[in-house]
Amino acid sequence: MSRLNIVVGITGGIAAYKAVGVVRALVLAGHDVHVVPTEGALRFVGRPTLEAISRNPVHTDLYEGVAEVRHVAIGQAADLIVIAPATANSIAKLAAGLADDLLGNTVLASEAPIVIAPAMHTEMWLNQATAANVATLRERGVTIVGPAVGQLTGADSGPGRMEEPDVIVAAALARAAAAAGLPRDDLSGRRVVVTAGGTREPLDPVRFLGNRSSGKQGVAIAEAARARGAQVTLIAANLEVAAPGGCDIRSVSTARELQAAVTEAAAGADLVVMAAAVADYRPAEVSESKIKKQPGDDGLTLELVRNPDILAGLGHAPHEGTLLVGFAAETEPDDERLLALGAAKLEAKGADLLVVNRVGWAEGFARDDNRVVILGRDGVRARADGSKMSVAHGILDVAVQHLREQAAPDPGVAREQPAPSG
Ligand code: C5P
């Protein structure tokens, strides 16, 4: 995505310290970030920190910079406004359209999309006044990210915790891109390998063991990566949908064929996305002729042997410079346990990111929509919900951010601005 002018509003809640992470991620993603904290926010996080991390001066006072009409200029110039954390009070002010500080003026003077990340105690979040204010903002087209459920400032826990900075940033950039109808070219010059579909393990010349994966999600990822400028190799395993144009397509059928194709293609790739459903087992023997019923038999026992775990093979081999994204399709109904399974799988496979989705008789497979959580080594990186194409872009947003973080050095102490003297 091209460089955006982004206003990050910070309001006065404990989670303000995490807003620094939001600012930093947006700056690292190449955007011009202007922080507008409220007076309350500055009691939690210092202006020098915000100036150093955003690399821009930070203003709060409505009566400063009057000659340049700052109270409207910041909002007019913005392509995107992100407010994190958004306290119950600031949500009420936004819903009422109040403009008693620089942030309120900035929001009212702007036509940019607004993304807010609420953070407050559970009781305040569930309060009818807050719920009504949030509903008002949602109706006006404001994107609400979170709040997450988890430990709050004290010993208590519940809904109200601010979403993690990466999740907020991914949602905000996706919103900005969608609003601008922008063709994103953030994968140009990158080599991307995607596996899609489901493997088939032959039993005999006419039968196989397969799965219900249609290949829609993997194909959408390949198409999305292509649209964002990548050179894409699609390893296609028995697709039930048309393969996308503009990609180098390698058709495979069994897990071992997929392994050979992906291992070859992954060498030197920037990003490998393993969306294919790969059979864990294959028949120990493949019959040369069609297996026939035997007179009087009342069943057939098949012996299966393990297939190689291709993703784990790639993950545990040196793969510096190649970001590895796995998928985990799970039938676990409980959200917390689903994420715990995902985190364990990420670790076991040595992947960098894992896209977790729930599957079942009616969920996940062959449908046009999907709902996923994208896990990184440090927890949830983003959630994506919608068409398989929008989920594909959500996954690529996180991957692009990850590739940039790998390339960008940490600013560290040496690059921080000196403390003002006096
Ligand atoms: O272990 P599980 O099948 O849940 O792991 C799913 C992820 O691992 C997917 O990304 C899939 O493409 C990959 N996989 C693999 N080789 C296997 C089984 C799964 O690469 N034998």
Work out the helix count. 13
Shape: elongated
Q: At the fourth CATH level, what is the homologous superfamily of the largest domain?
A: CoaB-like
Proportion of beta-strand residues: 15-25%
CATH architecture of the largest domain: 3-Layer(aba) Sandwich
Mean pLDDT: 90
Poorly predicted residue ranges: 410-422
Strand line-up of the largest beta sheet: 12-11-8-13-16-17-18-19
CATH topology of the largest domain: Rossmann fold
Question: What gyration radius follows from the Cα positions, in whole Å?
Answer: 25 Å
Terminal Cα span: 41 Å
Bound molecules: cytidine-5'-monophosphate
Broad CATH class of the largest domain: Alpha Beta
Helix coverage percent: 25-40%
- The domain tally reads 2
Largest sheet: 8 strands, mixed
Task: Classify the secondary structure makeup into a structural class.
Answer: alpha/beta
The quaternary organization reads as: single chain
Please tally the β strands and state the result.
19
Task: Write structural notes for this entry.
The protein is α/β, with parallel strands linked by helices and 422 residues long. It has 2 domains: 5-180, Rossmann fold; 191-291 and 300-407, 3-Layer(aba) Sandwich (Rossmann fold). It contains 13 helices and 19 strands. It has an 8-stranded mixed beta sheet with strand order 12-11-8-13-16-17-18-19, sandwiched between helices. Strands 2-1-3-4-5 form a 5-stranded parallel beta sheet, sandwiched between helices. Strand 1 (5-10), helix 1 and strand 2 (32-37) form a beta-alpha-beta unit. Helix 1 (16-28) runs parallel beside helix 2, helix 3 (70-77) crosses helix 5 and helix 8 (165-180) crosses helix 13. It is elongated. The chain starts with a strand and ends in a 15-residue tail after the last helix. Bound molecules: cytidine-5'-monophosphate (C5P). The site of cytidine-5'-monophosphate has 13 residues, from helix 11 and strand 16.
